[in-house]
Amino acid sequence: MPYKTPESFFEDNRRRILKHTCGEERRVKNRLHIIIPTVLAAAALLAGLLFMPLEPGGGRDLLHHRLLC
Prior knowledge:
Blueprint: H1 9-22, H2 24-51, H3 58-68
Helix pairs in contact: 1-2
């Protein structure tokens, strides 16, 4: 004897699967996977620029130190 399913079982199941795989929740998670690393990379770049020596003599001191060693 074959199993009996409710009248709208397959349509409801299809709708739930599509909602889960292509729904708004999925889009938000995908956006966060892109936004978070981008913000972290921008912050690292900014921190690198802030701590980089920008003085005109900064490069000379480093060269002089290398010559002494």
